Automatic annotation (TrEMBL), chain A:
Its EC number is 7.4.2.1. This is ABC-type polar-amino-acid transporter. One of its GO terms (molecular function) is ATPase-coupled polar amino acid-transporter activity. CDD domains: ABC_HisP_GlnQ. Keywords: ATP-binding, Nucleotide-binding, Transport. Pfam families: ABC_tran. It comes from Lentzea jiangxiensis. The keyword Oxidoreductase does not apply.
From TrEMBL, chain B:
GO terms for biological process: amino acid transport. Belongs to the binding-protein-dependent transport system permease family. HisMQ subfamily. It comes from Lentzea jiangxiensis. It is a multi-pass membrane protein. This is Polar amino acid transport system permease protein. GO terms for molecular function: transmembrane transporter activity. InterPro entries: AA_ABC_transptr_permease_3TM (IPR010065), ArtM/GltK/GlnP/TcyL/YhdX-like (IPR043429), MetI-like (IPR000515), MetI-like_sf (IPR035906). Its main location: membrane. Residues 58-250 form the ABC transmembrane type-1 domain.
């Protein structure tokens, strides 16, 4: 198999008259962790949601694991089983307990047996440190626990790529560490990951590549040490100054 | 004279209680209790209604309502999905159906089905089927709107999560959205069941046999042979046997829905 997990060329996406992504090119190598940073409205979540075609692109090409997802004849449902996604709002199935959250797609989509899917689910719950919560309902868990269950749910499909859409943004500060810890462990195990995040420390320590987006373009990309540590573009410098030292900046210019 | 707001509210409250007592006394005083006892509480007639009021009439009311509700729920779900469909003609059909059957008195629908279907299709349905079609057909129009609202109340993220795991849109609808929608609409759906229980009285129009009588028909039929309104009272009390527990169930489900179980996590 090729060592490119995700290849995006000339990607365009508009919502009505609003152009959110303007000609994006991006290549993610197998086993790499790519963090996407940028101000809100820069298009970073939309870019991530295009990778598994939760948002239908208006132009360009998206190839994941060798399958072109922008091909009109592609079986998108089967392609998505290989692309795990973790959402800002967790989106656990609220009517199912934790174990059923992890097994429902395995059984209905991958047609695994009840026994096999439970085994895989319990293994993945153990990976995120929540084995004892298998029979809890989502509403009984803290936000951090829910997000780790959501990660385990995505992992249970044996994905080749994992997408994280601001996975810690909805969490209380003291719960962020648990989720980032699980993500770091995944990265260490060699999972290919695309992460939209505001956690600069995580990006700095875990990412193989950092992408800074603004206004629908990729403004700057490179190793974390360069993009975060020594940004070249003025817009990147301005954004990082605000994020890393928020108390010493006035309100931003109206857009 | 200075009077605090709270004090004034207290006096007004007492005045209201006083008025209620006066009205009650007046009504009790003016009513002819001897007549009322004879007209509504004739124990002889009441006794003569048992056990068939339970074994035939109450049983039939429950059977008719259950059949109508089951059919109405299934048809209502189909209509709700059609109403939410991206295919415009489906939406039109559902809208026309819902608006028509919600806007026309159930009695007219029953007459239409009872006399119209045999003419249109040259076939006579068995009475239970006619009851099911009539009651369910009307109930479906109401339930469709309730179900549609429930489906739309399920957060969009639930579908996105399901799709991201490789479920098709219909699979996500069946496995994820509809079960959650029904949890949300269980209280209003129980209310629909209560309304349907009472609407089942309208099927007297279908000209049923004695052993097919439901409560209202049974009460009216007994009434025609007795000099007292007692049968109507008994029939009414029998409806309460069904509707009161359903009302409690509905309120219980509503309470459970808003407090425990499905609480929102602030995280």
């Amino acid at each position: 198999m090729s060592d490119v997990a995700v290849e995006i060329t000339g990607l365009k996406k508009s919502f009505g008259p609003l152009e959110v992504l303007k000609n994006i090119d991006l290549k993610v190598n197998r086993g790499d962790v790519v963090c996407i940073i940028g101000p809100s409205g820069s298009g970073k979540s939309t870019l991530l949601r295009c990778v598994n075609v939760l948002e239908e692109p208006n132009g360009g090409k998206i190839v994941v694991n060798g399958t072109e997802l922008t091909d009109p004849d592609v079986d998108i449902d089967s392609a998505r089983t290989k692309i795990g996604m973790v959402f800002q709002g967790f989106n656990l199935f609220s009517h199912l307990n934790v174990l059923a959250n992890l097994t429902v797609a395995q059984r209905k989509v991958l047609k695994r047996s009840e026994e096999e899917s439970s085994k895989i689910a319990l293994h993945n719950l153990e990976r995120v440190g929540l084995s004892e919560k298998a029979h809890s309902m989502p509403a009984q868990l803290s936000g951090g626990q829910q997000q780790r269950v959501a990660i385990a749910r995505a992992l249970s499909m044996d994905p080749e790529v994992m997408l994280f859409d601001e996975p810690t943004s909805a969490l209380d500060p003291e719960l962020v560490g648990d989720v980032l810890g699980v993500m770091r462990q995944l990265a260490d195990e060699g999972m290919t990951m695309l992460v939209v995040t505001h956690e600069m420390q995580f990006a700095r320590e875990v990412a193989d590549k950092v992408i800074f987006m603004d206004g629908g373009y990729i403004v700057e990309e490179g190793p974390a040490a360069d993009v975060i540590g020594n940004p070249q573009e003025p817009r990147t410098q301005e954004f990082l100054a605000r994020v890393l030292d928020p108390t010493h900046h006035g309100p931003s210019d109206p857009v | 004279m200075a009077m605090s707001k709270r004090k004034r509210a207290g006096y007004i409250r007492y005045a209201q209680y006083g008025l209620l007592v006066v009205i009650t006394l007046l009504v009790a005083f003016l009513a002819d209790w001897g007549q009322i006892k004879g007209a509504f509480f004739n124990t002889e007639i009441a006794a003569s209604m048992f056990p068939s009021v339970i074994t035939v009439a109450l049983k039939n009311t429950i059977i008719y309502t259950a059949l109508g509700f089951a059919f109405g729920l299934a048809l209502g779900l189909v209509l709700a999905l059609m109403k939410l469909s991206s295919v415009a003609p489906y939406r039109w059909i559902a809208t026309v159906y819902i608006e028509f059957f919600r806007g026309v008195p159930a009695l007219l629908v029953f007459i239409g089905i009872y006399y119209g279907v045999p003419i249109a299709f040259q076939m006579q349905f068995p009475p239970l089927t006619t009851v099911m079609l009539a009651l369910g057909g009307v109930g479906a129009a109401y339930m469709a709107e309730t179900i549609r609202a429930g489906i739309q109340a399920v957060p969009k993220g639930q579908v996105e999560a399901a799709r991201s795991l490789g479920m098709s849109s219909s699979r996500a609808m069946i496995t994820i959205v509809i079960p959650q929608a029904f949890r949300i609409i269980l209280p209003p759906l129980t209310n629909e069941l209560i309304l349907l229980t009472k609407d089942s009285s309208l099927i007297y129009i279908l000209g049923l046999f004695r052993e097919q009588y439901e409560l209202t028909k049974f009460g009216r039929e007994t009434l025609s042979r007795s000099p007292s309104l007692t049968p109507i009272l008994i029939a009414g009390l029998c409806y309460l046997i069904i509707t009161l527990p359903l009302g409690y169930l509905s309120r219980y489900l509503e309470r459970r829905g808003t407090t425990g179980g499905r609480k929102k996590v602030s995280a």
